[in-house]
């Protein structure tokens, strides 16, 4: 398996970690992982010698493992930057004809844009390499155009999280507190704090609502990348003495994240991040029975369905209006919450995610002799 694993934490790295650590995966395959993660998720595509040497090191390791006949399947979490795509094309060149199957998994929505922006010489090389991909995987049907019909086959496998991460009884228990008199309506932002993900619009919307004496609080959780913008906004929050209602919690994981989801009333991710695919944080919100406020970026509209509000325009005013509608319309709130939980259980559990990927890996072996050999799954 070739791809990013935490740290740092982001949707793609979490999805790959779940796959590599799954008992079902480990039972069926011998797994080797090559980590391609960068230190900063918003530095993608920027030239640096460190990245070049890191990518050369990854390619050398791939060549050594495949050259020894230690890989039957190459799973490549395909990059959405020019530099990363060149690396991936070289990896495909190195493994083509030496393994039974090449699987490329797209975890976002920027691949087509990158392919169309390449120099003609690079375009020919990378297109030829992508035609060697046996199966391309996307998160939703709406993202399939990113592969430009280059792989031999396309599959749709949505992201997923553990079915029992949040149980129905836990949601019911916290709902009693939320329905109590004087409850402070809690808005949760659970993602890396990158400007394009809309955290600044959300903070400004919360400030507007608090000035109107709305009984709300905004909790932000995730790693800060656009530090200057974040500090400017939080200084304004402090100056207006709103810092008890707009709080940054840092990066939260495990039990702390679960408690945060259960205590919140709505999840907001007003993103325009160009590589956004199918945010795992939104799936976590749906699992917790939280109505979602988000955008039409990537596969988000298909993900949310009838579980929240998809904003056509992203600014402080549209976000504030969406929050108001969920506070004042209790029936709408309950409908979105119920729909989100049902949709999660039906489509976006970890069981569905892992089963879908394993079925792709196993279907690639049609020769009976190959089926007698224990698979070695090489994640790139």
UniProtKB/TrEMBL annotation:
Transmembrane segments: none annotated. Keywords: Glycosyltransferase, Transferase. InterPro entries: Glyco_trans_1. Residues 184-342 form the Glycosyl transferase family domain. It holds the Pfam family Glycos_transf_1. CDD domains: GT4_PimA-like (cd03801). GO terms for molecular function: glycosyltransferase activity. This is Glycosyl transferase. It comes from Sporolactobacillus putidus.
């Amino acid at each position: 398996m070739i791809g990013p694993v935490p740290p740092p934490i982001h949707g793609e790295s979490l999805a790959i970690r779940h796959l590599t650590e799954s008992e079902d995966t480990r039972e069926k395959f011998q797994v080797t992982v090559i980590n391609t993660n960068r230190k900063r998720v918003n530095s993608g595509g920027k030239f640096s010698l460190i990245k070049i040497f890191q990518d050369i090191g990854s390619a050398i390791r791939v060549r050594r493992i495949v050259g020894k006949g230690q890989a039957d399947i190459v799973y490549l979490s395909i990059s959405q930057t020019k530099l990363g795509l060149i690396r991936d094309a070289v990896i495909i060149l190195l493994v083509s004809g030496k393994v039974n199957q090449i699987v490329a998994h797209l975890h976002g929505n920027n691949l087509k844009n990158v392919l169309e922006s390449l120099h003609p010489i690079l375009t020919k090389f990378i297109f030829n390499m992508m035609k060697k991909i046996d199966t391309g995987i996307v998160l939703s049907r709406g993202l399939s155009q990113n592969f430009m019909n280059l792989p031999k086959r396309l599959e749709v496998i949505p992201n997923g999280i553990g079915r029992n991460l949040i149980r129905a009884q836990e949601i019911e228990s916290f709902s009693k507190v939320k329905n109590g008199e004087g409850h402070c309506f809690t808005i949760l932002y659970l993602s890396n704090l990158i400007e394009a993900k809309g955290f600044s619009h959300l903070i400004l919307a919360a400030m507007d609502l608090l000035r109107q004496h709305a009984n709300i609080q905004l909790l932000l959780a995730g790693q800060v990348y656009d530090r200057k913008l974040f500090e400017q906004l939080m200084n304004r929050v402090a100056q207006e003495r709103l810092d008890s209602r707009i709080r940054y919690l840092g990066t939260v994981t495990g039990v702390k994240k679960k408690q945060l989801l259960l205590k919140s009333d709505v999840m907001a991710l007003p993103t325009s991040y160009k590589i956004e695919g199918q945010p795992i944080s939104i799936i976590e919100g749906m699992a917790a029975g939280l109505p979602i406020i988000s955008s039409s970026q990537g596969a988000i509209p298909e993900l949310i369905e009838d579980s929240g509000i998809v904003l056509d325009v992203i600014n402080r005013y549209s976000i504030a209006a969406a929050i108001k509608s969920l506070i004042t319309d209790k029936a709408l709130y309950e409908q979105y919450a119920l729909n989100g939980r049902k949709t999660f259980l039906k489509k976006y559990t970890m069981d569905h995610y892992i089963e879908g990927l394993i079925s792709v890996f196993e279907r690639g072996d049609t020769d009976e002799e190959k089926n007698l050999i224990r698979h070695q799954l090489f994640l790139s």
